[in-house]
Amino acid sequence: MIQKLLAVSFLVxxxxxxxxxxxxxxxxxxxxxxxxxxTVTWVRKVPGYCEGPAYEAATGAVYFTQQPGNNYPNWPIYxxxxxxxxxxxWYNTNQSNGLAFDxxxxxxxxxxxxxxxxxxxxxxxxxxxxxxxxxxxxxxxxVQSNDLTIGKNGDxxxxxxxxxxxxxxxxxxxRTTVATGVSxxxxxxxxxxxxxxxxxxxxxGSNVVxxxxxxxxxxxxxxxxxFISITQPDGGTYDSHGNRYVxxxxxxxxxxxxxxxxxxxxxxxxxxxxxxxxxxxxxGRTGKQGNVDNCVFGGPDxxxxxxxxxxxxxxxxxxxxxxxxxxTALRASSSRSRGISKEASGExxxxxxxxxxxxxxxxxxxxxxxxxx
Length: 373
Known about the structure:
Elements: H1 14-20, E1 23-28, E2 41-56, E3 61-66, E4 77-80, E5 88-90, E6 99-101, E7 107-111, E8 114-120, E9 127-137, E10 145-150, E11 156-160, E12 165-169, E13 175-179, E14 185-190, E15 198-203, E16 208-214, E17 221-229, E18 233-238, E19 244-248, E20 253-257, E21 264-272, E22 292-298, E23 304-317, E24 348-349, E25 355-356
Antiparallel strand pairs: 1-21, 2-3, 2-23, 3-4, 4-5, 6-7, 7-8, 8-9, 10-11, 11-12, 12-13, 14-15, 15-16, 16-17, 18-19, 19-20, 20-21, 22-23, 24-25
C-alpha cells in the first residue's frame, strides 16, 4: 500500500533493537497447512514500512522494498539470503514498490510513473540498482504503479494505486488499460498455473478482492465478480492447493482462504513491540499494530512464506508449498475450479501429479478474527 505519510526516521539504534524487539504473533491454521511448532521469525529488521517481496529461486534470495515516505525520491531495495547473509541494499530506485521476477529471472519493479527491469551486477551477482530497461512509463505523472504479476512469456498486469486503474503490458511492450474504478487498486495475481483465464485484483479502498475473466488473446479483463471480502486487502499469493494468502493491511495479518474463496481457513497475525520501528506518530499507524502488506512463497521446497510490513521481512514455515513461477501446475476441470484437480480416483494432485489430501476445511478459530484497523 502506498504510504501517504511524512518521512520515517532512519536513525534507529540497531543494537537496542536487537536486544529488545520481539515479534508477537498469533497463528491459527489447520494442521494440514501448518505445524504448531513453527512460529514467525523476523528475517530482516528494517526501521520502517516494507513491501513487495519476491523470491529468486536461483540464489535463494528474497528481495523487498522499503518505503520511507513520499518526500523521499528513492526507496531502497533489500536483498537477503535467509540463513546465509543479512542482505544488501540498493538505492536510487525511484520509489520502487512491488517486485516480481520475469521468465528469464530478471527482477521487475513497479515504480513511480513507470515499470522497470533492473540491471544485474556482474560483481556481486545480484542487482546493481541501475535500470536495465524501462518497460513502460507515462501512464500518469502522479501515479505510482503498485504491484504486478508476470506471465510465462513476459507479459504482465500491474496496478495503479492512485488512479484506481489496472494495466496490461503485452510481451511486445504495448500497454492498455484493462480495468478502471478499482478503488485503490493494489495487489494483483494472475493464477497462470492454476486458473489461467482469471486475474484477481485487491481493491484496498473497497475491502474486496475482485475476480476478472481474462481474454487470452488480448489480455482484456471482463466480468468482474467479488471473490473475497476482507479488510484493506493489499498483496498476496497462493499455494499449490489453490489456497489464497491475502494480506489484510490494517488488520495486521495474512488471512488464508480456500481455493474458491468461500471459506477463511485461518490467519497469520503479526504484532511488534511498541516503540520499535514505529511509523510517524501523527499517522495513527504505529509499529505495535504490526501492519502487514504482502507475502510470497520461497525456500528450496517452496514451503516458507515470506511476509513484509512494518519492520521488514518475516517468515513462517508451512506444509503446503507455493507454486514456483513458470511451473505448469494443476489441471483444472474448468476456469471456476480455482486449480483443484480431482482425478477419477477422488485424489487431488499437486504440481508434479502426486496425490494430495482433499481440500482443506475450515478449522475452529482460536480467537475472534480482527475486524478493524
